[in-house]
């Protein structure tokens, strides 16, 4: 289970479907880099005036949700491991740092990274209390010779997801959950 700082209540975008065609998907995701799209997003943010308290799931709720996953795992007999949720390097997003931070309800990128770290500390504390392992992927993603984050600092790119998949597979094998 991988959860991050922004397990949030953003405007309902369930009506937006991920394009099926790789060409349309590339076009769809490349829109985020266009100044026109960024300006539209900034206007949308101002119009909807998200409040930070309503944007993030509170830390106590986040902890309760994680503990519930652990309880359900024990109760229903499934294996559970929490994954950390590293963010890409802030320096790579300096050109639109303000817009990114505002989108996530933070005044600036530094504040957003500090908020994210509080959620990650909560994840580690709940995991320790509940006896759930935490698979740390951050060092492998950060040390990759090939960039592991793309245009979204929140989400690993194909390289990052491949690294994560390999770490998970190795963990599952070492825990005896999978045969090699």
Concise summary:
Helix content is about 55%, strand content about 5%. The chain is mainly alpha-helical and about 180 residues long.
Could you explain the architecture of this structure?
Strands 1-2 form a two-stranded parallel ribbon. It contains eight helices and two strands. The chain starts with 21 loop residues before the first helix and ends in a 6-residue tail after the last helix. The longest helix has 22 residues, at 109-130. Helices cover 53% and strands 3% of the residues. The protein has 180 residues and is mainly alpha-helical.
Sheet with the most strands, sense and barrel status: 2 strands, parallel
> In total, how many beta strands?
2
Estimate the strand proportion. under 5%
Please compute the radius of gyration using only Cα atoms. 18 Å
Low-pLDDT regions: 5-15, 49-54
Helix coverage percent of residues?
A: 40-55%
Structural class, judged by helices and strands? mainly alpha
SSE string: HHHHEHHEHH
Strand order of the largest sheet: 1-2
- The number of helical runs is 8
Please tell me what the overall shape is. Answer: globular
Task: Look at the structure and give the mean pLDDT.
Answer: 77
Termini separation comes to: 21 Å
- The oligomerization state is single chain
């Amino acid at each position: 289970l991988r959860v991050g700082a922004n397990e949030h209540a953003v405007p309902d975008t369930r009506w937006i479907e991920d394009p099926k065609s790789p060409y349309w998907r590339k076009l769809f995701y490349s829109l985020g880099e266009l100044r026109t799209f960024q300006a539209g997003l900034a206007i949308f943010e101002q119009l909807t005036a998200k409040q930070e308290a309503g944007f993030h799931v509170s830390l106590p709720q986040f902890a309760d949700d994680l503990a519930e996953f652990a309880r359900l795992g024990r109760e229903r007999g499934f294996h559970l491991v929490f994954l950390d949720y590293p963010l890409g390097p802030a320096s790579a997003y300096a050109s639109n740092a303000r817009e990114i931070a505002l989108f996530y309800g933070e005044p600036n990128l530094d504040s957003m990274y500090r908020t994210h770290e509080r959620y990650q500390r909560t994840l580690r504390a709940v995991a320790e209390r509940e006896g759930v392992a935490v698979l740390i992927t951050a060092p492998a993603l950060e040390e990759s010779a090939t960039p592991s984050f793309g245009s979204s600092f929140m989400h690993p790119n194909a390289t990052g997801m491949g690294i994560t998949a390999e770490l998970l597979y190795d963990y599952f094998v070492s825990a005896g959950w999978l045969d090699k």
